Task: inverse folding
């Protein structure tokens, strides 16, 4: 049973009263809108004659009833507009129900209304809409959190609990409308990147999300089962191998913005579902890709912020190229003080032990080097920095370095201590690629659940021949965090992954009596509440035990006095 608050019960009653008056609180017909709140505030003073026949809709956010006339505020997708509602204007005939009953008593904060009228300026200088017509568009039966703002815009009693904000993003967007700018910026990042790629003639494509072989990255997949085909499938951890198939097929440049899924841990920079952009361009290498990335990010940041320098926490990050380039081995030598370039797996494992880095037997040489890098280097890479020339064990899909044995042609771009881009000169030798996959299978046999699987169809595609190619992946979520100065990935996702909500607790009828009495007045004297409940001693004892076991109430003792309160 759904336990409703007093306000929720009242709002449902208001809904029924509206319907009894012949007013549909959820009308089907469209409401004409010819302006936004933002347009009015920007343009009214310069073009007052254009604001005589205004029609606008939004959510009722505040109301000040003053007898036969009232002020209120409505919020549309662009901002807040004050409205002035006079009884005789919206009720020109003898029947004043729309104002006296509907507007004053049956409307509540959070309801959607459509209003028509004209714009004027109040004596205090507030641009407002003088309402001549008012229509209910949607009745809210759950009250919005009350967020108070003073004249300087300071917020009190805000809707600030992170878990509630992320879980109820619809409420967050309503009562904290300023967060919309984060998601507008996110959309602009994607659209600007897409425009840059399209201007270069590269084709946007779509590749499968459900894949029979999980490949393209070292990560643990989500698995599922296709009933009709009676076969296991995986949510993709990357789209790399399919995009390369398209290069084999004759496209010279392909890219995709898409969701990736990795069955791994969650923290402030990781969500199991995330957005990545991957692009592959034929006849290019990773050196060319570095220059392209610098130009791309410089243009994106300048378009969005008007400059290449952005504020990230207390730091200023400059996305103007060129970026510093540092090899993987040199970065470990610089920040960890250890040269691992000539060490074998056993030697690097000992380095990890000496540095206090926890490792296990499933980790091969590449994984161990990655652990050292993550623990000792990443946090120092604040300004955009390319880490290049990775050990071959770390990157099964990259081409061997043209001049440095044992390395591959790969770079990762780090900004503010986090990786936001990863690129290779792509491996296009099918024999070498098969050997790399076989090495991954050996790691999987040792217990590495992030090792790549053998993909025979991808190998077959390479056997038909793939031209020299460079590929790049950029994490859109992390890039958005940087360009909006956010510290957690949840702030740049509309609907981040969350633990399941706790189910509503089922209560007996007697338990409900006690709980509802306590909800109206708590804490309360245990003896007084027992009297108010009217329950017999046995029913009281059983109900109190049930409420305590369900974690809904607690009893405290001060001397001889027992007090009960909600948990």
Result:
């Amino acid at each position: 049973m759904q336990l409703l608050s007093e306000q929720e019960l009242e709002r449902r009653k208001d809904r029924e009263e509206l319907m009894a008056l012949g007013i549909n609180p959820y009308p089907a017909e469209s409401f004409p809108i010819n302006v936004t709140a933002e347009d009015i505030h920007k343009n009214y003073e310069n073009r007052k004659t254009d604001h005589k026949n205004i029609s606008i809709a939004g959510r009722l956010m505040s109301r000040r009833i003053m007898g036969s006339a009232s002020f209120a505020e409505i919020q549309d997708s662009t901002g807040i507009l004050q409205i002035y509602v006079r009884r005789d204007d919206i009720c020109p005939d003898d029947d004043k129900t729309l104002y006296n009953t509907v507007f004053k008593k049956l409307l509540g904060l959070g309801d959607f209304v459509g209003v028509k009228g004209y714009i004027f300026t109040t004596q205090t200088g507030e641009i407002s809409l003088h309402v001549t017509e008012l229509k209910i568009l949607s009745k809210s039966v759950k009250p919005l959190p009350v967020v108070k703002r003073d004249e300087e815009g300071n917020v009190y009693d805000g809707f600030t609990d992170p878990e509630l904000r992320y879980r109820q993003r619809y409420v967050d967007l309503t009562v904290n409308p300023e967060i919309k700018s984060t998601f507008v910026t996110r959309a602009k990042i994607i659209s600007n990147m897409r425009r840059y790629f399209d201007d270069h003639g590269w084709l946007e494509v779509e590749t499968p999300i459900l894949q029979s072989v999980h490949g393209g990255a070292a990560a643990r997949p989500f698995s599922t089962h296709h009933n009709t085909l009676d076969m296991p499938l995986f949510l993709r951890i990357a789209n790399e191998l399919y995009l390369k198939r398209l290069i084999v097929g004759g496209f010279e440049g392909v890219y995709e913005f898409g969701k990736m899924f990795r069955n791994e841990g969650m923290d402030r920079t990781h969500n199991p579902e995330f957005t990545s952009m991957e692009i592959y361009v034929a006849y290019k290498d990773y050196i060319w890709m570095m220059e392209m990335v610098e130009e791309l990010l410089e243009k994106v940041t300048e378009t969005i912020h008007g400059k290449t320098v952005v504020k990230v926490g207390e730091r200023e990050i400059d996305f103007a190229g060129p970026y510093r380039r540092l090899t993987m081995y040199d970065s470990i030598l610089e920040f960890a003080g250890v040269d691992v370039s000539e060490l074998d797996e056993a030697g690097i494992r000992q380095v990890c032990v000496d540095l206090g880095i926890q490792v296990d037997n499933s980790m091969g040489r590449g994984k161990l080097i990655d652990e050292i890098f993550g623990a000792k280097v990443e946090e120092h890479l604040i300004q955009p920095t390319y880490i290049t020339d990775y050990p071959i064990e770390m990157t099964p899909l990259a081409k061997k370095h043209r001049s440095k044995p044992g390395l591959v042609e790969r770079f990762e771009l780090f900004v503010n201590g986090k990786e936001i881009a990863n690129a290779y000169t792509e491996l296009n030798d099918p024999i070498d690629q098969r050997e790399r996959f076989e090495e991954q299978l050996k790691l999987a046999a040792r217990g590495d659940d992030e090792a790549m699987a053998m993909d025979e169809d991808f190998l077959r595609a390479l056997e038909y021949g793939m031209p020299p190619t460079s590929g790049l992946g950029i994490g859109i979520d992390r890039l958005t965090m940087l360009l909006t100065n956010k510290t957690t990935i949840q702030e740049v996702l509309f609907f981040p992954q969350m633990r399941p909500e706790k189910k509503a607790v089922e209560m007996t009828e007697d338990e409900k009596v006690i709980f509802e009495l306590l909800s109206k007045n708590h804490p309360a004297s245990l003896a007084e509440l027992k009297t108010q409940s009217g329950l017999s001693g046995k029913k009281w004892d059983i109900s109190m035990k049930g409420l305590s076991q369900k974690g809904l109430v607690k009893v405290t003792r001060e001397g001889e006095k027992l007090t009960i309160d909600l948990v």
